[in-house]
Amino acid sequence: MIEQQAAPARGASSSPVRYLQFEHLIQFPTLVHAIFTRHGGYSQPPCAGLNVSFKEDRPEAAAANRWLALQALGLETWPCATVWQIHSAEVALFASEQWEDWSSDWPYRALQVAGHEVIWTPRPRRRADAIMTAERKVVLALSFADCLPLLFYDPQRQVIALAHAGWRGTARGIALTTVEALRRQFGCAPEELLVGIGPGIGVCCYAVDEPVRELFYGRRDFTELPVRPDLRNLVAESAVFSLVPPSGERPAASSEPQLHLDLWETNRRQLLLAGVKAEHIALAGLCTACHQQDFFSYRAEQGRTGRFPVLMALRPEEA
Ligand SMILES: [Zn+2]
């Protein structure tokens, strides 16, 4: 991955905003993409840095950080589309004529109302975990802390998609449903898609319980949003778990090897099963829990942390 940085913003942390880009995606002039680190930004602990979630932070800080991220890419005048991330395998199609009031779903400016700063839409209106579009000059925005960002680009059809793959979304086949939705909606050929798997929690740090494995292998199901029956075999085939011997860092209580989920490899396999070419998939290979200085980690910071943004957009075609 290639690291970029923006000039420090006035009143923000003295460190500049830093973001990562995939080498195989950076060559396309109409594609804009960035995975932000937590560096720079206005937020204080526990969300210190470039947090864009309203959950644990002052809304005005999170909104200002959204603006900073957009500004780092020169996109601060474009509207942003997002979804309410619910760990599903739902893929939303962004089409401006069908989405009412969408342009305030990812607010990045606070309004002054009677002397107070107010965010006017605290929640996005649509629930999904991937968003796709062929529209230009619209920013797709999702936020992350351990869950994997999946960035899709079809250079032939000029289509982008951005997905959020935590363990639940992965167990529901979000990588599979995103490729499927791109094919159905835009006629994207899976073998032409370029995909980047961004930073997320690595197998090194992702201890899970046995019921998680049972879900992947179809021996249990979710009580809500069940796994689509026709995807169960593919999800089971994609799943990669490993037994990690006890390490000195873990509490002495467990001397048994521990079950870990490999979210990176499981998603990579789902992409391969969906027809994406191995040479078209780039894996960041960065564990968010191992790199808390650079990324927010829900697991490593016991849930009290921020979210870093991932942004994608299509520029207008050259005149
Ligand atoms: Zn790790």
Could you characterize the architecture of this molecule?
This protein has 319 residues and is an alpha+beta fold. It has a single domain, classed as CNF1/YfiH-like putative cysteine hydrolases, CATH 3.60.140. The protein has 7 helices and 16 strands. The strands form 4 sheets. Strands 1-2-3-16-9-4 form a 6-stranded mixed β-sheet. Strands 5-8-11-10-12-15 form a 6-stranded mixed β-sheet. A two-stranded antiparallel sheet has the order 6-7. β10 and β11 form a beta hairpin. The radius of gyration is 19 Å and the shape is globular. The model has no long low-confidence stretch (mean pLDDT 91). The site of zinc ion (ZN) has 6 residues, from loops.
Sheet of most strands: 6 strands, mixed
User: How many beta-strand runs?
Assistant: 16
Q: Estimate what percentage of residues fall within beta strands.
A: 15-25%
CATH class: Alpha Beta
State the fourth-level CATH superfamily. Answer: CNF1/YfiH-like putative cysteine hydrolases
Residue-averaged pLDDT: 91
What's the SSE pattern? Answer: EEHEHEEEEEEEEHHEHHEEHEE
Class by SSE composition: alpha+beta
- What CATH architecture label applies? 4-Layer Sandwich
Helix content: 10-25%
Question: How much is the radius of gyration in Å?
Answer: 19 Å
CATH topology: CNF1/YfiH-like putative cysteine hydrolases
Please list the strands of the largest sheet in the order they lie side by side: 1-2-3-16-9-4
Shape estimate: globular
Question: How would you describe this structure in keywords?
Answer:
alpha+beta; 19% helix; 7 helices; binds zinc ion; CNF1/YfiH-like putative cysteine hydrolases; 6-stranded mixed beta sheet; single chain; 319 residues
